Amino acid sequence: MRTFKKVDDYGDFVPAPAGSHFAVCTSIAFLGLHFDKFNDVNIQKVGITYEVEGDDNKKLAVFEEMKDSLHEKSKFYARIVALNGGKVPAEGFELANLLGRGVMVSIVHRTSGERVYANVDQVTPIPRGMVPPVPSVDPVYFDIDDPDPAAFASLNGKHRKMIENRIRTDQPQPAVPAPGMVNLPEDDDIPF
Question: Which of 67, 90, 108, 183 is buried deepest, with most CB atoms within 10 A?
Fold first, then answer.
């Protein structure tokens, strides 16, 4: 019989150091529809992975997920502009062209329980004249509307899991009665 055993070992996971880092965009993944508990709505999400250099020149990945919105005040729009050198891309610009581009990433640490998480706080263009870092992995672009199994397999585990657990709109949804409407069983024994 299998039993439950709590495992506190997180392997060799090392969070990226807090502070500002030169980084390179190694993946852009459209993650599908997810429930946003803060706004109580379903939203399309996109994930971006950056590679930064940690202590001892070790390459570390940091991930962020955000609403898939190209509104000029959205986080995703700001990330696109930063990855494009601070310039708004032309209409029809292919987002896959942002892969491998360098940026400055500001990382903050957040503690939950005994774990420390490295969260992306700000992303800005790299200063002029600076050479962007070279990624140690092949950049990956994944679009849930045109899925590529090889690209999916190359994504980080967090983004693969989010894609697998997305809200699927291609499956029939159970009928929900309108508010105030109750489905009562039929009763043929009405006394009038």
Answer: 67
Over residues 58-95, the pLDDT tens digits come to: 899 999 999 999 999 999 999 999 999 999 999 999 99
Neighbouring residues of 167: CB distance < 8 A, sequence distance ≥ 6: 32, 33, 34, 35, 42
Residues in the chain: 192
Which SS3 state, helix, strand or coil, does residue 18 take?
coil
User: Half-sphere exposure of 23 toward its Cβ, with a 13 Å CA cutoff?
Assistant: 33
How many CB atoms are located within 10 Å of the residue 3 CB? 4
Determine the residue type at 9: D
Say how far apart CA 40 and CA 25 lie, in whole Å.
Answer: 30
Integer-rounded Cα Rg, in Å, for the chain is 22
- State how far the Cα of 23 lies from the Cα of 80, in Å rounded to an integer: 14
29 exposure class (CB count in 10 Å sphere: 0-12, 13-18, 19+): buried
| Domain boundaries, given as residue ranges, for the chain | 25-100+134-164
Which pTM value belongs to this model? Answer: 0.81
